[in-house]
Amino acid sequence: MIALVGCGTVGGGTALLLTRDIKFLKEKTGLELGLKYVVDINFDNARAIGIPEELYETDLNKVLNDPEVTIVIELVGGLTFAKDVVSKSLSAGKNVITANKALLATFGEELFGLARKNSVSIGFEASCAGGIPIVKAITEGMAVNRIDALYGIVNGTCNYILTQMIDQGMSYNKALKGAQAQGLAEADPTLDVNGMDSAHKITIMSSLCFGYNCELDRVSVTGIENIDIYDVKLGTEMGYTIKLLAIGETYGDKVSLRVQPSFISNQHPLAKISGPFNGVSLYGHAVGHTMYYGRGAGDLPTASAIGADIISVASGAQKILFDNYKYWPDLTQKPSYMDQSEVESAYYLRLNVEDHIGVTATVTKILAENSISISGISQKEARFDEKEQKSIPLVILTHKTAKGNIDAAIKKLKKEQMISKKIVSIPVIAQKSENIK
Ligand SMILES: NC(=O)C1=CN([C@@H]2O[C@H](COP(=O)(O)OP(=O)(O)OC[C@H]3O[C@@H](n4cnc5c(N)ncnc54)[C@H](OP(=O)(O)O)[C@@H]3O)[C@@H](O)[C@H]2O)C=CC1
Ligand SMILES: N[C@@H](CC=O)C(=O)O
């Protein structure tokens, strides 16, 4: 029997699948599945979607002490009560299913170890890229591959906001409200827009891809909060679209983990992933490039991934994988990390400069001194700030260069009197080449 803790957006969707669709699930899988408890502190949402009242429970201990319950689904979110639910359930010998990427990215090693100690397993398909079965793709579908890179749009809220801003000209705040209304955003949407939710997901997925216990605090994270629609529009004119990319890559025996707003060409396979959808590209040594697409957030799409875990746990498949796969974070070593300053890409730079003779020469000289080669440069129409101060936007596209060079050049440029301190730099990410061998 199943107990579900937290009946909000995802919990509500899951409870619906386990009540309304239970007959279909049994017919399809041949498994005897049953929802016995819905634990929450209030049941407004459960009532609103018609979950039967006899399932409602406020006391977690009742679930923990019920020997009939073999699966506890944690859908509360956060790191405090959720951690208690997961730890206590595992310690009570119950399998756990969770969508809580923050919890697994922070305490994965401890919780996976606890599951192993108690001979149970943790299902977490819904923790990365919502409804896309990406955990199964990495651990099962790509099993024979050495995976050396993962590029993903893995936050539905940010992708929805950016799409609305570009396609509808909607303001950032209005688009964020829209994402919240659709149940895409986290309870605290700061985690979405500041890039941390994507960082949680890239930590979990990279650990499974590369066979290291990747650490959340080694992800270089930039969110979308400070993106200026002016740059988005200039990017569009140049044939680029802006996406919040989560990237995990290996460089020899080193790992690089980063989340960053990035320009990608309109021809890039991830460019067409819009609205609440997510897309994840994996690169394996045997298969080459594979790509996964689907809804990255929302009640039923995420419940679909939870349902897949329920079936895996109930059929015994999850435990077999848990016992045999060697890339779980409690079984692997922490990686060595690539120094972020050495990571290379092309860049879009926007400077605001005074309209003086020699300013472009000063800029190009500083870039050259920092080993940055320019692939394009253009001066745009003058702009006026809120204090009516005029400045000329100078947009530069660079060839591939190390991030350290860009940072050093920006530091120097900011010291020049004719150049405003606000310099925008956005990596321009090309599609990775396959390396089949
Ligand atoms: N929303 C999405 O699309 C996705 C979410 N996730 C993850 O799924 C998890 C749940 O997210 P989501 O459904 O959006 O969150 P919600 O905030 O909608 O749901 C959380 C539920 O837990 C309840 N709750 C809070 N504290 C307790 C407690 N002490 N005891 C029992 N119940 C409690 C809340 O009640 P109340 O409302 O009264 O506070 C609410 O009903 C999170 O880890 C999130 O990161 C993963 C993929 C997609
Ligand atoms: N808030 C998240 C929900 C899914 O993980 C998102 O927007 O992607």
UniProtKB/TrEMBL annotation:
GO biological process: one example: methionine biosynthetic process
Pfam families listed in its UniProt record: Homoserine_dh, NAD_binding_3
Residues that hold NADPH according to the record: 101
Residue positions of the active site: 201 (proton donor)
Annotated metabolic or biological route of this protein: Amino-acid biosynthesis; L-methionine biosynthesis via de novo pathway; L-homoserine from L-aspartate: step 3/3; Amino-acid biosynthesis; L-threonine biosynthesis; L-threonine from L-aspartate: step 3/5
Family in the record: Belongs to the homoserine dehydrogenase family.
Molecular function per GO: homoserine dehydrogenase activity; NADP binding
Positions contributing to L-homoserine binding: 186
Chain residues that bind NADP(+): 5-12
Domain of life: Bacteria
Alphabetical UniProt keywords: Amino-acid biosynthesis, Methionine biosynthesis, NADP, Oxidoreductase, Threonine biosynthesis
Signal sequence range: none
ACT domain mapped to chain residues: 348-428
Name of the protein described by the UniProt record: Homoserine dehydrogenase
Reaction it catalyzes: L-homoserine + NADP(+) = L-aspartate 4-semialdehyde + NADPH + H(+)
E.C. numbers: 1.1.1.3
Keyword Amino-acid biosynthesis among UniProt keywords: yes
